[in-house]
Amino acid sequence: MTNPFSLAGKVALITGANTGIGQAISVSMAQAGARVICAGRSSCDETVALIAKAGGKAEYQKLELSEPTEAAAKFAACGPLDILVNNAGIIRRGDAVDFTESDWDEVMDVNLKAVFFLSQAFARSALARDAGGAIINIASMLSFQGGIRVASYTASKSGVAGITKLLANEWAAKGINVNAIAPGYISTNNTAVLQADPLRNQSILDRIPAGHWGAPADIGDTAVFLASKAAKYIHGAILNVDGGWLAR
Hints:
The mean pLDDT is 96. The chain has helices at 20-31, 45-53, 68-75, 101-128, 151-171, 192-196, 198-207, 216-227; strands spanning 11-15, 35-40, 57-62, 83-86, 133-138, 176-183, 238-241. The chain has one domain: NAD(P)-binding Rossmann-like Domain (Rossmann fold). 42% of the residues are buried. It has a seven-stranded parallel beta sheet with strand order 3-2-1-4-5-6-7, sandwiched between helices. With 248 residues, the protein is α/β, with parallel strands linked by helices. The radius of gyration is 17 Å and the shape is globular. Helix 1 packs across helix 8 (216-227), helix 3 packs parallel to helix 4 (101-128) and helix 4 (101-128) runs parallel beside helix 5 (151-171).
């Protein structure tokens, strides 16, 4: 009996795989049988070592996503891929009346422009080989909510939700699944300050129906599902993995 959740024989590239959610996605996909290419501008040696220690296959590919078109060209040299996870992202904070053009452009380049052009490069390769594939974008709660003091981040993550649907519309019939995951509050090094603040942490927990923060593996395992045959009829979805945050 075949396992519809297996990624055996697949090759997956995950951006921003050096830590946090990107690292968890990489580990989960390797555990499911994929060979993982950990990509980004920062070293992914720790992630590669974790996967190797568990008996999986992984390697590091340097990609400078602040130059999206150059990253897409280098991405094309990675060879045939079955799965692309656009996870890398940055954030800049500031009041809207003071927000700078550079803070806008830097975030949009990494969080949205790179997502589109890496997805384009992935699809061009897949279509040229008459092969299908899966693209998983990492959206955000701010794909649905406005937030405060993060103008370019909110715009970029709203854009990720929109571009996910557009690409699904264009490529679903061609065998390429395009979906997104919108993580809620996940326990990572990026959220350590929030967790350490008793008042802020409690206010967050009070809003989450599940009553606790999510684990990085919650996102990793969801990504495995969306990349697997089990999700073959899912196209253009933005799947909230948030402990019920948006339902509250």
